[in-house]
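Aim 2 progress update. The chain analyzed this quarter is reproduced below.
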Amino acid sequence: MQAVIFTEAGSNFGLGHLSRCVALKDYLVNAGFETTIYSRGSFSSNDCVSLEWLAESSKENLKNILHNKPLVFVDSYYADFALCEYINKMAKVCVFFDDFNRMQYPKNSIILNGALNAQKYYIDVCNEMFVGIEYFLLRKEFRQKEHKIINKDISRILITLGGNDEANNNQKVLEILEKECYYAMIDIVIGEIHKPLSYGFNTNVHKNLSPNVLKNLMLDCDIAISGGGVTMVELQSMKTPTIALQIAPNQAYQLRAWQKEGLRLAENVYQIKGLLKTLKKFKDRKKLFNRLSKIEIGAKVPDFITIIVDKYNA
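Predicted C-alpha cells:
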C-alpha cells in the first residue's frame, strides 16, 4: 500500500504543516503504508523529500508520483482548485487538510480539520469531513498520557514561539520575563530563523530538539509562552498553562476557541506582561489544568485512519 503526503515547510510557511504530516506518516506506516512526504520550501529534513511540487517544472514528477493511484494527503495553503482536482482524480483516496474552510474542495475528496470547534466552519459542505479537536494529529511522543505536576510556585518558564522569529519576539519576551519573573529559570526553544539573543545567566537556549526533549520541557515548566500553531496544541495536550502569542492572522479563530478553554491569548507581545499575572496564582493554574484534562485531543484519529484504510482497500 502506498501513501503520499504533499506539504510545505520553511521560512515562508513555518513548520506546523510538516509537523502534523510527520505525525500522520507515523499512523500510516503503522497501518502498513509505504509513506513519503514531499515538502516544498526552504526547510529540509530527514522526514521528507524536498520537491517544489506546485511548480510547473515539477508537473512530470507529480504525474509519476501519482501514477499508481496512491492514498494522498495534501496539506497546503497554496494549492489551487485546479491542482487539487487533478490530485483528487489521480488518487485512489484523497484527503485535504483544511484549517479555515479556505476553498471548495473537489467532489468525493475528504476534508480533515483537527482544530478545536472546527465544525463551525462547515455549512452546506458536501464533502465527507473529519473535523474537531478529536482529529488533531499529535506526534507520537505527545499521545502518551503524562502526569503533569502543577507546582505551587513558578520556578521554570518555557518560551517556544516557532521556527521563524523574524519579528524578534523571543528577545521581547525574554526582556519581559527578566523583569516580571526574574526568579524563574527560563528555557527558550529557537528555530531556524531568529535574531541574536541577549539573555541572563538563568536562561537556557535550545535548538533542534527532539520531540521527546521538547515534551519533557513542557512537562517540567510551570508556564509556557508559545506561538499559535501546532506547538500550542501540544502544550495543551500536556495540560501546561500557556500564554499564546498570535503570530499569523490565520491563527486567530483557533486561538480564540482555545481562549474559551482557559488559554491566555496575547494579540501582541506587550500583552504578555498582564497575562502573566493571571497565571501566577497556584489556584488559577490548577483550574486551567483541570479544564484541559477534559479535552480529548486526537482521540478519534485511530478511527479516522481505520476508515481511510478501508476506503483505500475497497
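The radius of gyration is 20 Å. The chain has a mean pLDDT of 94. These observations will guide the mutagenesis experiments scheduled for the next reporting period.
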